Amino acid sequence: MAPPFDPADLPTGVQMPLSPLVARVLAPNPSPFTFTGTQTYVVGATDVAVIDPGPDEPVHLAALTAAIAGRPVVAILCTHTHRDHSPAARPLSEATGAPVIGCAPLTLEDDGPRADAAFDAAYRPDRVLADGEQVAGTGWTLEAVATPGHTSNHLCFALAEEAALFTGDHVMGWSTSVISPPDGDMAAYMRSMQRLLEREDAIYYPAHGDPIDNPQRLVRGMMGHRKQREGQILRFLARNGDSRIPDMVLEMYKGVDPRLHPAAGRSVLAHLIDLDQRGLVTATEDRWQMR
């Protein structure tokens, strides 16, 4: 029998080429919420962009410097400003002279359970990319694709030359994204997923988990999963009457690591808020019921 999988056993700080234009460097921050850690991508050959520079850890910054290998850095791009994605942007900018470009700054007090997902209050981009705006280097072009939902400021980046999409936390290779109110928005997330479904990307490079080589099938499956979860919530309330979120989580997330239950509760809350806005449920203090 194979030994239990431990993400901490995977090599960090090693540049792994994935395509002629894309390499990744895994940050040393594995957890139940980041899986093996945050994956930073280096895009380009003669000059490069760095996507999601990750946590401000000296060993990770040294690994990125080694991966850049003295090449000019055109831009440092961030998909969103959770602390496992953007804090290394500024020190890397100071080391390379590259501008920090990408998502808008967002500082929000999040009462969710994920310490790693707190917002990076120090993030100050030199340029914010609007949907459809581009950054280009020698032989590569990255286009911003607005995908709010996981966070309101979330961007994906499309690499036209390889029909690739860097999906940050919007679509991950190991789990569905946590949607944590008040900034996380389930209705916005589903609209963003529909937008990706209508694109023709051939491969996704997520910030956590392996590359996804049949992305439309995965997106359809993830959207179906969210619809199934919504149905579970409605059936639970129809059967049990007014209920609290922890009770829903215990039934609906059987077999899930209990450490993830608080985060699951945030996604359930996001579903309930969406259902409330659609006139299907209502709340009295911390108890929910059918309308």
Defining traits:
2 domains, Metallo-beta-lactamase, Chain A, 6 helices, single chain, five-stranded mixed β-sheet, 291 residues, seven-stranded mixed β-sheet
Description:
This protein has 291 residues and is α/β, with parallel strands linked by helices. It has two domains: 7-213, Ribonuclease Z/Hydroxyacylglutathione hydrolase-like (Metallo-beta-lactamase, Chain A, 4-Layer Sandwich), CATH 3.60.15.10; 224-290, Arc Repressor Mutant, subunit A (Orthogonal Bundle), CATH 1.10.10. 28% of the residues lie in helices and 21% in strands. It is built from six helices and 14 strands. It has helices at residues 58-68, 89-96, 186-197, 215-240, 245-252, 261-277, and strands at 15-17, 22-26, 39-43, 48-51, 73-78, 100-102, 127-128, 134-137, 140-146, 155-159, 164-168, 203-206, 281-284, 287-290. The strands form three sheets. Strands 1-2-3-4-5-6-7 form a seven-stranded mixed β-sheet. Strand 3 (39-43) and strand 4 form a beta hairpin. Helix 3 (186-197) packs antiparallel against helix 4 and helix 5 (245-252) crosses helix 6 (261-277). The chain is elongated and about 60 Å long. This is Glyoxylase-like metal-dependent hydrolase (Beta-lactamase superfamily II). Pfam families: Lactamase_B, WHD_BLACT.
